Amino acid sequence: MISPQGFLRAPSAETAEARWDGSQWIISGTAFPDGLTEGDVAGLRDLRDVRIEWPQSSAPLDVIHQLASAGVPLHSAAAPDWLDPDLRDLVTDARWLEPEIDGTGASLADLRREEHSLRLRRLGLRRSMNTSERGLVSVIVASRRPALTAFTLAQIARQRHVDLEVVYAAHGFPAEVVRQEARDFPFPIEIVELGSETVFGEVINAGVARANGGYIAKWDDDDWYSPDHLSDLLLAKEYSGADVVGMPTEFYYLEPLDITVRRGRWRTEITADLVSGATLLLERTTFQEIGGFQPVPQGGDTRLLKAIEAAGGTIYRTHGMGLLVRRAATAQHTWQPPLSEFIRGSANQWRGFHPTRILEGS
Amino acid sequence: MNRPSTLPGAPAMTPRVTPSIPRIRGNDYSSLTPPEIGAWTPAMRVSVIVPAYNGQEKLDLALAGLAEQSYPADLIEVIVVDNGSEQPLRLPEIRPVNTRLILCEIPGRANARNAGLQVATGDVIHWLDSDVVLDRVAIEAHMRWHHLAPYLSVTSYLRFTTVESPTPADVIAADDRAKLFEPADPHEWIVNLVESTDKLRSAAQGAFPLHVGGSTSVNAGLIKAAGPMDEELILGQDTEMGYRLSEAGAVFIPEPLSIGYHLGPTMRMRERTPISRVSHAFTPDRIPHYRWLRQHPTRQYLTPYVEVEIDVTDASYEDVRATVDNLLAGTIPDLSVVLVGPWDEVEPEYRAPLTNPRLDLVLIRGHYDGEARVRAGGRAGPAPYVLRLPPGWVPGEDSVAQLIDLMTERSLGLVSVLLAERPEGIVAARVERTAAFARAEMLAEEGEDLDGVVTEVYGSMWVDPETYGLVPAADASPLEARRSAYRRRLKEKAEEEKRRSAWQGELEKLKKEGERLNGEVKRLNGEVKRLNGEVKRLNGEVERRDGEVERLNGQVERRDGEVERLNGEVTEARAEAQRWRTSAVQFRREIGTLRRQISVLKRGRGLTRITRSGIRRIRGLLSDQSPPK
């Protein structure tokens, strides 16, 4: 299956040309009369982009859709009217090609390229897979902070291309707080109230026990998620075939310093052993088969991943463009790594709150 | 691609102001697009200041060059400053409408320029040498930039002409002044500087030498901020002023459309070495960016490279000492320290000194009273970098240098070091680029955060303290006195030398051993050769012996046959012996029979004689034919 697996985040080659010769698509001089294979796609991974020369009149788009599904960045200076508007807008969108730097003067070319690739992937993959019809996703929120309820629900409310319900575990505060905030919440929501003495793992398990969805998605109460977060995870679940899918944590908002940093150039779109606990998505049956969350106050995510691997399951790490993790001031959180760890070796820094364009929903 | 207006829960951000003045990052002026020549409406006034000493003819040409400019004459003011010429200068007839002549008796180009500056009223000051004839669009080409931003310094392309000079009338009559002055030579080092730095756009802190007096225009407000020319300098005043302009936030733009023809070859071409000699004596004191001219390990200069501001108001004497002492011992010698505190409230208490509530401040001030690099009071001033450091935090020997490296490599305006996160807030050190903050001050809108503007015009970055070696005073390693450092170096050198010579000895020994072994190898090779010969010989011998063996084997075979034959004979003999034995047994039996017959006969007498002879015969038979043993 043609998919974003193997996407290269820092290409070393320049651009290639794709054109329709009247009967077939030619990419970089090679004809692909029968479409692309995974091997063909691997050969295009190192390119910054593929520039498409469109024919005047309509041509089959199989190869182009394959390129899009693979996340090969596509661009055209102009596109003909016969092209469907979504694809046309995307390939002619040149924002990602404009030189841009972060607050420290470092180039953002690769980041913008990946965002562009991601938009193409969604367009290509959703043609064959409607993520809204993949079944119900139960979003499990375990929160100790009533003050964040409105924030958390607003993040979930803007999820799109997905059928979801929420199980909100009010951990040490009255369920009524959540009920109040959820009055206008657009999706089904079930609220569980658990005493503050309950350990985190058990809170999650209690949430899952009330879930009706075929899928379980873990959700952190204080992080920012792109509106396509769950839909992206469902896509990755499909094309990777992994038992658990998740994202790396790359972007942090460091509240005490009021800066946004990007750190850890993770390899993404790859089978991995580590994904962010705030992004786990798996089938409910898988969750139950491995015995759920271990009743521990911390480190439950890592244990879950280890259990999956021990049971012979696989973990897939998709892109991390749509996640922004909040690092609050020390006093407000149970345990956090020192701030300087987020700064050391950060690849990018921006002053203030600076979400990616993907996170902003574009 | 629907785009929600804001992300839920995003922290409140100050609404992004639309800057009224364009914000140039570093020296990258590519965000400015000047209008085409002749296609815009100028409004700003320019004062062209022409210092002159003698050379009336050249001045006449320079003024003719200023006449008939494409820039509106009523926006041009020309101030000729006669710097005490032997024959007082006069204004020629061919000159711009607004031209004044003033006198400055004090010799020196800086004095003359400053005299002109004092009476200048323009929005822009254009320094022009009295032997430079401008092209017709030169002023307009400068001024189109100045209309875009108030912090620019624009420089013409000077060309050195040695063709026979035209008359002032020729100059105003000529359509294209190039025809009068070409061929001419370019201003080589400016061309090199411009070409090696993407037209100076990537030059950042290295752009200021573009400020040359030949034909450069600067916004008057910027000059006001930077101060006039330094009259103490005898050479290099332009560069020095360029440095101060850059510290005031200036952007330097080379303008190829503005050409100035310099009458005669450049002074630098003629006297390069003596000029460098003079300027290298003076400029390092004032231009800290010339690091290669400040290689001395300890000496101090007029303008430090880094100034460190430490707020000591509530600090302990020990913390301040740890911080200041380590700063002074770092790898940047041209660093000075400003101690910020309520110094006018600090009074020594002579009767009971220990009861003074401001005792630590008294001790701090007293301790550094004699250190010229540390001063109590005032603010950081002319240095290109200012470090703000909380007392009690200690930079390592190379920390400050590494932070500055980071800033120059990335052209940053601000680097913040996260020292500690405390419940009451963040403890941080900061290095600020003076030029960036000066520009930000100029550009910041009402209420806008200066750091944000600095990030836009240069860039800013947070770093961690471990990477740059900043530690709390308690964790700092003690400082080493210079003399013990010197002795340690000496000792290390001696030890190194000892090790080296030990290695040398070892090497010699190994060399000798190697030689010996080589000899041995040679000898052994000979031996091998000899032994090979021997082997060959022995192989021959073996072959010969083999032949012998074969021959002997033959013999043995033959002998074996003989043995066999003899064995046969033996067998034969044995068989015969057997036969004899059998015969013997038979004979005995016969003898027995005969004896019995004899006995019978003895009893019968008659036969005695015959029988006796019979016995004799038998006995004879027996003795002759006894069987072999």
From TrEMBL, chain A:
<dbReference type="Pfam" id="PF00535">
    <property type="entry name" value="Glycos_transf_2"/>
</dbReference>
<dbReference type="InterPro" id="IPR029044">
    <property type="entry name" value="Nucleotide-diphossugar_trans"/>
</dbReference>
<protein>
    <recommendedName>
        <fullName>Glycosyltransferase 2-like domain-containing protein</fullName>
    </recommendedName>
</protein>
<feature type="domain" description="Glycosyltransferase 2-like">
    <location>
        <begin position="140"/>
        <end position="264"/>
    </location>
</feature>
<dbReference type="InterPro" id="IPR001173">
    <property type="entry name" value="Glyco_trans_2-like"/>
</dbReference>
From TrEMBL, chain B:
<keyword id="KW-0175">Coiled coil</keyword>
<protein>
    <recommendedName>
        <fullName>Glycosyltransferase 2-like domain-containing protein</fullName>
    </recommendedName>
</protein>
<feature type="coiled-coil region">
    <location>
        <begin position="493"/>
        <end position="583"/>
    </location>
</feature>
<feature type="region of interest" description="Disordered">
    <location>
        <begin position="1"/>
        <end position="28"/>
    </location>
</feature>
<dbReference type="InterPro" id="IPR050834">
    <property type="entry name" value="Glycosyltransf_2"/>
</dbReference>
<feature type="domain" description="Glycosyltransferase 2-like">
    <location>
        <begin position="47"/>
        <end position="146"/>
    </location>
</feature>
<dbReference type="InterPro" id="IPR029044">
    <property type="entry name" value="Nucleotide-diphossugar_trans"/>
</dbReference>
<dbReference type="Pfam" id="PF00535">
    <property type="entry name" value="Glycos_transf_2"/>
</dbReference>
<dbReference type="InterPro" id="IPR001173">
    <property type="entry name" value="Glyco_trans_2-like"/>
</dbReference>
